[in-house]
Amino acid sequence: MDIDSQMTLLIVEDSATLVVVYEEYLRDEPCSVTYVDTGASALKQLKQPVPDVVLLDLGLPDMNGMEILKYINIQKLPCLVVVVTAQGSVDTAVEALRDYKAFDFIEKPFDGQRLIVTIRNALHNQKLAQTVKIYQEEVKKYQKFKRTQYYDLIGASTPMQALYQIIENAASSKATVFITGESGTGKELCAEAIHKQSPRKDKPFIAINCAAIPKELMESEIFGHVKGAFTGAINERPGAAMLANGGSLFLDEIGDMSLDLQGKLLRFVQTGTVQKVGSGQIKKVDVRFICATNRDPLVDVQQGRFREDLYYRLHVIPISLPPLRERDNDILLIAEKFLTKYAKEENKSFTSFAPETETILLNYDWPGNVRELQNVIHNIVVLNDGKQVVPAMLPIPLNKQLPQNPHYSGERAQASQTTYATIPPIHSYSKKNTMVKEIRSLVQVEKEAIKQAIEFCNGNIPRAAALLEVSPSTIYRKRQNWNKELI
Question: Cα–Cα distance between 52 and 32 in angstroms, integer?
Fold first, then answer.
C-alpha cells in the first residue's frame, strides 16, 4: 500500500542536532513532517489535527515522554507511536509496548535505515487502518440501507440489492425494459416495481401474458377491435395499449408472440400509434414498454423466432433476474414470508421452520424458483398442523432428501402421507449371522458412504451432505484428499 503525502508525522525531540539528522534521513519519505522540542508543545500539537505517526523521545526536558504516551492512550487518539529510548532502557520500551500500546521502539544510537524502515512500517499500518475504517463505515452504511424487500420483491442477497438499484435507476426513464429470467423468478413483480417507482405510478399498469392468449386473439388484446371486426366481436373493445395510455404496458413471455404480430408491435413501438382491428382510425398513445421472457432472446433471434429489429428496439435496458438457487438465504427469507401469509389465511399456527427443514430448503435447487417455493409452503400449511415446519411435512420432491432417521418417526404421524427415499445401505447383515467374513476400515466405509450418497443425489454434493448430515465442505475436502492419494 502506497504512502501518500497527506500522511503526517510528528517528531518529539529536544536535540536540535538529532532533528537535523532525522530531517535528512526522512527527506525523501512521502509524508508531511512536523518537529517539536518539548512535551508541552507535543501535547498542544496533539490537540490539533492528530498526526498519523508520532516519533517520541522519552527523554524530554520538561516531562517524561511516557506521560505523553499515556495521554495518547487514555484519549484513544488515532495515531501510532514509535518510542525512542536511550541505550539500556529496553525495559521502559517493553512497558511502552505492553501497557501503552506503542507501535514500536528504537534504541539510540540507530542508523538512518532503521529509522526509515520503522517510520515506513508505522505509516503503512496507519494507512491500512484508515482504509479498513473507511471500508467498515461503508459496510455499515450498506447494511443500514440494505433492503430485504422492494415493493413485492423479497430478498436481501447481493444479486437482489443490485436488482433494486437497477430498478431505481431505470424507473424514471421512459426507455423500454427487457426482463429475462427463469420461470417463477418474479418477472412481473419486477415490472410492477419499475412502474410503481416511476413517474407513471398513478397511471395504469397493464399486463398481458403472450403465452396464455390464443394467437388469433392477441392482436385484439393489444390493439383492441371495433364491433363486427371478426366473428364474436359483438362490441367495440379498447386494447391493452389504449388502457395503458399514460402508464406502463407489460408484455410477458413476448417470445411467444407470432412474427406477424411482432411486425405490428414494432410499428407501435416506433410510432406510438395504435389501430384497432377492423378500424381505419389511428390513435396516438403514450406508454412505457416493459417486456419479459424466460428464454434467451438472442437465441430466438438467431433461430428466426423473434424479429431482430424488434429485439433491438425493446432491448434498451436489460434486467436479468437471478434464479432462487443463486440467492443464498433469500430462500428462507421468502419461505418465512409465505409461511406467515398462508398461516394467517388458513388460520394455522405455524411460526417457524425446524433447522433440519431449513437445511433441506437451502440445499434444494428450486427449478421452479419462487413460484415453486410458494406452492411448497402453501401445501405444507394446508395439509399439516403445528407451530414448526418439520422435515416430514415436506411434499414431493423435497421429501426425497429425508434420511431414514428415528428422530422423525414421531413427526411423521402428524404429517401428510409421503414416500421417503433413503440412501441404499452399504451392506446388509443378518442378525442371525454372527460370522462376519470381511472387516473393512472406517475410512473405507466412510468413502463408500460418501460415494453412494453423491451417486444417489445425481452428483449434487450439497444434497448428499444434507443426507449424510455433514457440511458440503467436508465432502469436498475428503474428495480432494482421495485425489491426492491417487497421485
Answer: 10
Identify the CATH class of 442-486. Answer: mainly alpha
| 186-226 pLDDT per residue, tens | 999 999 999 999 999 999 999 999 988 888 788 888 998 78
Q: What is the pLDDT of residues 413-461, one digit of tens each?
A: 333 333 333 333 333 333 344 444 456 677 777 788 888 888 777 777 7
If DSSP codes are grouped into helix, strand and coil, which group holds residue 150? Answer: strand
**Would you say the pTM of this structure is higher than 0.85?**
no
Sign (positive or negative) of CA dihedral 113, 115, 118, 121: negative
Exposure pattern of 278-297 as b/e (b: 16+ CB <10 Å)? ebeeebebebbbbbbbbbeb
Of the candidates 187, 184, 189, the one whose C-alpha atom is nearest the C-alpha of residue 369 is 184
Dihedral class, residue 422 (left if φ above 0, else alpha if ψ from -120 to 50, else beta): beta
- Could you tell me how far CA 412 lies from the centroid of its own chain? 36
Domain residue spans of the chain: 8-141, 153-322, 325-412, 442-486
CATH architecture classification, 325-412 = Orthogonal Bundle (1.10)
Residue whose entry in the numeric block shows the C-alpha cell 446388509: 428
Three cell numbers written together for 160? 437482489
Bridge partners (DSSP) of residue 318 are 178
Pair 81, 54: CB distance under 8 Å: yes
> CATH code for 153-322?
3.40.50.300
Rounded Cα gap, residues 191 and 193, in angstroms: 5
Q: Which amino acid type is present at position 161?
A: Q
